[in-house]
Specification:
577 residues, alpha/beta, Rossmann fold, pyruvate-formate lyase- activating enzyme, OB fold (Dihydrolipoamide Acetyltransferase, E2P), 7-stranded parallel β-sheet, 5-stranded mixed β-barrel, 20 helices, binds 5'-deoxyadenosine, binds iron/sulfur cluster
Length: 577
C-alpha cells in the first residue's frame, strides 16, 4: 500500500485556464480528532516571500489556533510546523531543502510531529511529491489555493497516518469568512484579489497562485471596517496587480473605487501593493491625491527601462509610457516617493537595453528599489529564451545596485532636518533602546525611545541618513505620543464605543427613567412610613423596584462591560513601563 495519498496534483498548464469563480465560505468546524490532538500542543510557521505568503501565514495561524494549538516561535517546541515557501526566484526555493532537514530532529524526538510544506513552490509540477519521496517525515504538502483546508487535511493525516499531497493548480474559489491571527497589532494586510492574469514571461506567480480573482467590494470593506474598529493604524491592500481589481467582476468596479471606499473608513494609513504601471490610470492618481490618509508612497515596478526588453518580458507598456505615468503622478503629488522592482540579465538583455534601465532609474529618481538578477523559472516562457551569461548579469547588477544606493541616499538626504510621523514597529534587534518604524514615504527610521511606543505614531526629526535607514530623535515627549495613542484607541475601541453607546441608551430609555422616578418616590414613602404598620409593605415595594433595576438587561450589560473596559484601561496603564 502506498504511503502517500494524492488528493490533487499540480499542473502548471491547468493554471493558465480561466475557471468560473465562486464565492464560498470557509468550513470553520474543527474535526474532533484534530481538536483532541491540538490540546496542549504547539504550532510553528516560517514564511518566505511576499505579502501574499505572509497573509496565508496569518490565515493558517487562525485555523490552527481555532483547532486549539498554541503558537510557538521555538522550532524545537513545535508539534506542527509549516514551511511556507516562495518560488519567485531560484535562491528562495533552494532554501527549503535545508529547512526541511532541520526539522528532522522534531520528528526523531516526537513521533506525533507533523511537518507541512505550503506556499508557491508547491505549485510547480512534481515538486511536492518529490519532496515527500525524499523526506518521508513530511505529513502534508498543500497548495496556495487550499490554506483554508489545513485543519481538515491535518485531521485526515491523523486518521490515516499517510502523507498527503493536496495541490490544486487553479482555483475557482474566493474563500470568505477566514479566521486569522494577524502578525501585527497595528498594521494589517488585506487581500483584495488573488492570482494574476498578466503572465509576464519571467514570472511563475500566475502558475502558482492561479488566474486573477477579485473579492467583492463589500467583503473587503467589511474586513477593513473591522480593522479600523479594532484600532489598526495601517492597512495594506494586497493583490499581485491591484489595478486589475474588479475586471473579473464585470460590473464596472475599479480599484480606485475600492480604494476610495476603504480610505473613507478613516484608517490613518492606507497603502496598496502591487501596481501595474500601464493600468495606473488618472482615476487612481486622483483618488490617491484626494485622500490624505492614502500614503504618498507608490511601489511602481518597472522591471526594465528598455522598451524592447519590456516587450520580451510581455510587460504591456513601453519606456515612454511608463515615464509618462510617472510624470502624471508627480504632477498631482509632487512629494510622492516612488519605489520599484528591476530585473537585470533578462534573456537577451543587451548592454544598450541595460543602460536604458540606468537612465530611466535616474530620470524617475526612485526613493529606493528592489533589484534582482533574472532567475529562470520552470514552465515560464523566458526560461527557454537565450540566457545572459551569469558574469554579465552580475556585473550589471553591481552597477545597478551602486546607482540605486546613490538614488536612495539622495532621497534620504532630502529628509534631514525635517520631522516625520513614524509608525513604530518595535525595538530594533540590535539595540533595545532604539525603536524602528516607517515614515509615510516608506523609509525606515531609527530613534532612541521607550518600548511602550510600539504600535504608536511618533513625531521624529531626522538627523542622519544611512542609505537603508535614517536616524532621528523624538520631536516630542514620549508620554505625549503615548497619550495621543491612548486617545486614538479610546476613540476607536469597540468595547469603549459599546460602553458609551449603552450609557446613552440607558439615559434615554423611558423604562429606566420611569423606574428611577418610581424608586425616588418609593424611597420617600418608605421614609414617611417609618414607625407605621405600612412600613413593611413600603419596604417590599422599594426592594422590588431595586430588583427590577438590578435585573434590567441594559443595566446588566453595562455592568459586565464595565469590568472589561476597566481591565483594558489597566492593561494600557501596565504597558507604560
Ligand atoms: N527572476 C528574477 N526576478 C523575478 N521577479 C519575478 N520573477 C522573477 C524571476 N524569474 C521579481 C520581479 C517582481 C518581484 C516580486 O520579483 O521584479 O516584481
Ligand atoms: Fe508576475 Fe507580472 Fe503578475 Fe507581477 S504582473 S505577478 S510580475 S505575472
Amino acid at each position: 500500500m502506498s504511503k502517500v495519498t494524492i488528493l490533487n496534483r499540480p499542473c502548471q498548464k491547468d493554471a493558465a485556464k480561466r475557471p468560473e469563480v465562486e464565492r464560498v465560505f470557509a468550513n470553520r468546524k474543527v474535526p474532533e480528532i484534530l481538536k483532541s490532538f491540538a490540546k496542549g500542543r504547539y504550532f510553528y510557521i516560517r514564511t518566505y516571500g511576499c505579502q501574499a505568503n505572509i497573509r496565508d501565514e496569518e490565515v493558517m495561524a487562525g485555523f490552527l489556533t481555532e483547532a486549539g494549538f498554541t503558537r510557538t516561535y521555538e522550532q524545537a517546541q513545535a508539534d506542527v510546523a509549516i514551511i511556507n515557501t516562495c518560488a519567485v526566484r531560484e535562491n528562495a526555493e533552494e532554501k527549503i531543502y535545508g529547512e526541511i532537514g532541520s526539522f528532522k530532529a522534531n520528528h526523531t524526538k516526537n513521533k506525533d510531529f507533523m511537518l507541512v510544506i505550503a506556499g508557491c513552490v508547491m505549485g510547480e509540477d512534481g515538486v511536492g511529491e518529490s519532496l515527500i519521496n525524499t523526506y518521508p517525515f513530511i505529513s502534508l504538502v498543500i497548495g496556495t489555493h487550499d490554506v483554508a483546508k489545513i485543519n481538515d487535511l491535518l485531521a485526515k493525516y491523523l486518521e490515516e497516518r499517510k502523507s498527503i499531497v493536496n495541490i490544486r493548480s487553479f482555483s475557482s474559489e474566493i474563500v470568505e469568512n477566514l479566521p486569522s491571527i494577524r502578525l501585527n497589532d497595528a498594521q494589517a494586510f488585506v487581500n483584495i484579489a488573488y492570482g494574476c492574469d498578466k503572465f509576464c514571461t519571467y514570472c511563475i506567480v500566475p502558475f502558482t497562485r492561479g488566474r486573477e480573482r477579485s473579492r467583492h467590494v463589500e467583503d473587503v470593506v467589511a474586513e477593513c471596517k473591522k480593522l479600523v474598529d479594532d484600532g489598526y493604524k495601517q492597512i495594506t491592500l494586497l493583490g499581485q496587480n491591484v489595478n486589475s481589481y474588479g475586471l473579473d467582476l464585470k460590473d464596472g468596479t475599479t480599484f480606485a473605487h475600492l480604494l476610495e471606499e476603504v480610505a473613507k473608513l478613516g484608517v490613518p494609513r492606507l497603502r496598496f501593493l502591487t501596481s501595474y504601471p500601464s493600468q495606473f490610470d488618472d482615476e487612481m492618481i486622483e483618488t490617491m491625491a484626494k485622500y490624505p490618509n492614502i500614503d504618498k508612497w507608490l511601489h511602481f515596478p518597472v522591471q526594465s527601462g528598455s522598451s524592447s526588453c519590456l516587450r520580451r518580458m510581455a510587460r504591456r507598456y513601453t519606456r515612454e509610457e511608463y515615464l509618462e505615468r510617472v510624470r502624471a503622478i508627480k504632477a498631482k503629488m509632487p512629494d510622492i516617493a516612488l519605489t520599484t522592482d528591476i530585473i537585470v540579465g533578462f534573456p537577451g538583455e543587451t548592454e544598450e537595453e541595460f543602460e536604458d534601465t540606468l537612465t530611466l532609474a535616474k530620470e524617475v529618481g526612485y526613493s529606493s528599489a528592489f533589484t534582482f538578477i533574472y532567475s529562470p523559472r520552470p514552465g515560464t516562457p523566458a526560461a527557454n529564451m537565450e540566457q545572459v551569461p551569469p558574469e554579465v548579469s552580475h556585473e550589471r547588477f553591481n552597477r545597478l545596485k551602486a546607482l540605486v544606493d546613490e538614488l536612495t541616499a539622495a532621497h534620504s538626504d532630502t529628509m534631514i532636518g525635517n520631522t516625520y510621523e513614524v509608525l513604530v514597529d518595535g525595538p530594533s534587534k540590535r539595540d533595545s533602546n532604539v525603536l524602528s518604524g516607517y515614515a509615510r514615504n516608506g523609509k525606515l527610521v531609527n530613534f532612541v525611545g521607550p518600548a511602550y511606543l510600539t504600535g504608536c505614531f511618533v513625531k521624529v526629526k531626522i538627523l542622519e541618513s544611512h542609505v537603508y535607514s535614517l536616524k532621528g530623535e523624538m520631536a516630542e515627549d514620549p508620554l505625549i505620543s503615548k497619550a495621543r495613542d491612548v486617545a486614538f484607541h479610546m476613540e476607536h475601541d469597540g468595547l469603549l464605543k459599546e460602553y458609551a453607546r449603552l450609557n446613552e441608551e440607558i439615559a434615554s430609555d423611558p423604562d429606566i427613567k420611569a423606574l428611577g422616578e418610581e424608586l425616588v418616590k418609593a424611597k420617600k414613602e418608605l421614609a414617611l412610613s417609618m414607625g407605621t404598620e405600612k412600613h413593611k409593605e413600603k419596604k417590599n415595594e422599594y426592594e422590588s423596584i431595586l430588583e427590577k433595576i438590578h435585573n434590567h438587561p441594559l443595566l446588566q450589560n453595562r455592568d459586565s462591560l464595565h469590568d472589561q473596559v476597566e481591565s483594558e484601561l489597566l492593561a494600557i496603564r501596565d504597558s507604560i513601563k
